[in-house]
Each structure stands twice: as structure tokens, then as C-alpha cells.
Amino acid sequence: MEQTDFSDPNRSTKFDSLSREDLIKRQSLLEDENLRLVRENYELRQISLTDEQLRLITAEQLEALNDSLYGASSERWKKPKDKSQDKSPLKPRVKKPSERYPNVPVREVHIKINPIPQCDSCGNQMKDSGMAEESEQLTVIPKKYEIVRNLRTVYTCSCHSCMKTAPLSPRILEGSTYSDEMILDVSLSKYCDLIPIERYAQMASRGGVKDLPANSLIDLTHHLLFL
User: Fold this and answer.
1) pLDDT tops 80 at residue 160
2) What percent of the chain has pLDDT over 70?
3) Residue 96: inside a domain
4) Could you give the residue ranges of the DSSP H alpha helices within the chain?
5) Average of per-residue pLDDT across 19-24
6) Which of 69, 101, 131 is at the close of a domain?
7) Please, are residues 161 and 152 in contact by the beta-carbon 8 Å criterion?
8) CA distance 227 to 223
9) Mean pLDDT in the chain?
10) Could you list the residue range(s) of the whole structural domain that residue 187 is in?
11) Are 26 and 17 within 8 A, CB to CB?
């Protein structure tokens, strides 16, 4: 059976007839088409991308494709393993969360045995040694919604001719039923985390705030944008 040699250097392809300018034009068309498809894909998921975000996403996709095609795992020939280096290196010490994230506050939880245990050897009641075995875990405090009720003190005078009310602090949107913190959280979620407003409302519903109007939240982001 005759075996076909696919590695013939003289074998021509359709690209041999194209000039350098033709190849550049085709490459440009393919890049534009890829950008369009990526943008449409995100728009179908109700995620709007800026041009800079679109370029970053396509660049990451191209890098992943290059790794899959030309990475070390795809090479036909692999360098023989050096038997002299069979000894696995010592594993590095795993950093504690407080070392890895020094800016995150630490809350200590003291765990005790109640009632105080007895010694397994003599049966006497044990006492606190002052020592503690320490371990750390990174945790998260779920988002908590609350209603702020402002009680503005009203001042009167014994002459009954004057009355003054304590003023509110300046706000992003005067008279709004949403606080500045709420407006900033909605805006950061939409424009920085690319979370659609409808999905933000669904997340708030799981936190106990049901039927949060998406249109009102969108208006808040627009107001902040044009300040």
C-alpha cells in the first residue's frame, strides 16, 4: 500500500497565488468578522461591551488558540526526562489568608469546650493553658439590604414664631428613595462587572428585596453618568 507524503515542501496551496496585500486584506476581514461575532454573542446574553473590552476578549481567545496549537502539550517531540531530576522539589509553604490579603480585616473567633473537659489520665478538671491552635479561612459577608429612615429633628422656639428642621446631607440624586451607596453599587455592577440590570434585580430578590424596578435602576445609572 502506497503511503501519501503530506510533508512534501513542493506541494502548493491556494495561498501561494495570493500576494502579501491580499493576505493582509483577508486577515483584516477575518478579524472584523470575529469581532462582530463576539459582540453579537455577548449582546444575546444582554451584555454590552466597549471597544476596549471587545479587543481584550478577542486577544485572550487568540492567545488560548495559540497555546492549544503551539503549546508544549501539542509538540510532537518532547525532551527526554532527566532521571537525575526525579526528586520532586519541596512544596512551597501555603500562605495564610492574612498573609496573602493583608488589607482584609481579621475577625478572631475563640472556640472553647463547654463544659471544661476532664483529663483522660487522672480525671481532674483541665484548665485553659492560654495557648491556642490557629487556623484561618477566607470568608465573605453576603450583601445585606436595609432601609435607612432619616429622622430630621425639628426645632421650635418658645415665641412660636420660628421653626427649623435639620437638613439632609447632600446626595447624588436629591429626593430619590435610593441612597448614594445603592446608586454606586448598581452603577459599578453594570459598568464594571457587566451585570445586566435585570439580573441585578433578580439578585436583589434573593436578598429579600423583591420586585425591584429595573427601569428605575437604569435611570439611576444615567443620572450618575451625566453628573
Assistant:
1) yes
2) 83
3) no
4) 20-44, 51-70, 97-100, 180-191, 197-206, 214-225
5) 82
6) 69
7) no
8) 6
9) 83
10) 154-225
11) no
Q: What is the DSSP letter of 118?
A: B
Our count of domains for the chain comes to 2
Neighbours of 183 (CB within 10 A): 19
In the beta sheet, which residues pair with residue 82? none
Q: What is the pLDDT of residue 217?
A: 94
Q: What is the pLDDT of residue 152?
A: 93
Burial class (CB in 10 A: 0-12, 13-18, 19+), 218: middle
Grid cell 428605575 — which residue?
216
Tell me if 30 is assigned to some domain.
yes
Q: Which of 16-30, 102-116, 189-203 has the lowest mean pLDDT?
A: 16-30
pLDDT tens for 45-99 read 777 778 888 788 888 877 777 777 666 555 555 556 665 555 667 777 788 899 9
Query: What residues are paired with 125 via a beta bridge?
Result: 118
DSSP-based three-state secondary structure for 155: strand
In-domain check, residue 109? no
d(CA 218, CA 183): 10
Distances (CA, A) of 81 to 23, 67, 90: 41, 22, 19
Q: Is residue 148 domain-resident?
A: no
From CA 194, how far away is CA 47, in angstroms rounded?
Answer: 6
186 burial (CB, 10 Å; 0-12 / 13-18 / 19+) is buried
pLDDT of residue 15: 65
Helices (H) and strands (E) in the chain, counts: 6, 2
